[in-house]
Amino acid sequence: MKKRVAVLASLLILTFITGIFPDVPVFADETPAAVIYHTGDTDGFLSTSDETIGADILSSIVEISRERVPETFLFDTGDAFQGSFFVNMDKGDNAVTVMNAVGYDAMTPGNHDFDYGIDRMIELAGKASFPILIQESAAVGNAPITSSSLIERGDITIGVFGITTPAVKYNSVGGFGLDLMTMPELIAYASDTAASLRNDGADIVVCLSHIGSVDNEVRNIGTVYDIADGAEGIDVIIDGNTHDENLNRKTEGKIPVAIAGERGEDIGVVEFYMDEATGLYTPKISLVKKSQTLNVVPDATVAGVLVACKENADFKSKEVVAISDVTLTDFEKEIIRGGESVIADMVADSMRWAAESDIALINAGVIRGPIYQGKVTYGTISNVLPYSNIIYVAEVKGSVIREALEYSASLFGQSDGGFMQVSGLSYAFDPEKPVGNRLTEVLVGKRQLDDEETYSVATLDFLTEGGDGYEMFVPAFTDSYAVGSGDLAAVFAEYLNSGESPLTTTQNRIRVEPGSEMKPFSFTPIIIISSVSFAAILILIVSVRKPKPRVKRE
User: Fold this and answer.
1) Residue 461: helix, strand or coil by DSSP?
2) Core-most of 31, 83, 201, 407, by most CB within 10 Å?
3) Cis peptide preceding 502, ω within 30 of 0
4) Which helix (H) or strand (E) segment is 74 a member of?
5) Burial of 276 per CB tally in 10 Å (0-12, 13-18, 19+)
6) What's the CA gap between 326 and 374, in Å, rounded?
7) Taking the model in full, what pTM does it have?
């Protein structure tokens, strides 16, 4: 009853405020035959804020649409279960609970939805009241994860199937070993699946994709546009992994691509209009922006679910675990994935400090948020380092380190999370040289890296498994051990409280040559005197998963 009242209240408000939702079907001059709302790359940001359209607002918008168009659907394109403290703390349970309450119809998993492991992905799929869809090669034997679904609502049957990026095998621990096909295979699979769904009675065929619109030149996986240009029988591809709503595309003769933004900044909309003469459905792609939702009354039921889920998360997230003497904000992709970063330098330093190793290596994609001067909470640390990575140490030959840094240099200019940040060494490279021959210098301390010498190297479990394409680390870390509690977030909190001098500028550890060296990024430090509860630090350390020391991987 409360939900119905909230919906009707929102409908009344929107009816009288002309033009607030110019692209939302409620205000369309012509009633569409079907409407799809879609989200993607929410990263667990599900509560309404100044930047985010929360799940409670989303639910109201969908229900308002259904008042006029019963054939309204809601899909997600992945990276929903990982990314914020709210969903990280219980490994995705909160995300599934909220999405169930909103009433999603289907989703395809993103690469980060596998970060808790494939077994956990299957558990979450079993808890979802909506199907989780992935290409058949990965779905077979992994029920309740399936490949496609027919959803009937009113006069429309939508056939929907999912495709997750093959890069999962590089950038998610849970995705290692999954067969997610090559791009030519995916194009053929998409066409075949669309034809099968059409034969089974689908009026409209939708592909939910977590591929992305930017290719990686080194891995050469392909983009969503390869599918849009090469596949047949699909009415619209709704894509994630790009984080850029400005890349929606409708090209004559090609399958249209619809993309929402990230972290709930937008809601994607696809309206379908039927041509009476041909019986074909034509999509219209648009967005609901945050500024258009300010007068929407939140869905009371979903808001209540959010409050219940947040209570435990908020209590834990507010625990103060560290004090920072500086503000570190250079975590943005355009900085950290193409050059040296102060916050990355400090995180790498914390790893080397805890491991007492010669070198620490960390992929830039691990760092996802800023640290501000003053009290640092568990929630803040978790947003900076959300992936529960474990630090491992091994004796590694210089030639392997060189190979890893050469690979990192090959990723320059691609905004790739595999770009390597370092401690204990510095490296220079020339991006104009051919891939594989870009390194111009590698120093360990002040000495040249010796290919035949061994060095103690601290890195993350994700990389020791070959994550982000660092396959050279798999044999190198066969004999390795975890550092203390091992958890990167806990180690970084301990480091902030260790009395080590904070960095305020980059340290010339990564140099791009010739003539394109990035300018040092610097901060003005604000030194404060404070203390942190020992109990709070203890809570952080013991609350993380405790790894078993590894001796040998079979």
Assistant:
1) helix
2) 83
3) no
4) strand 72-76
5) exposed
6) 8
7) 0.70
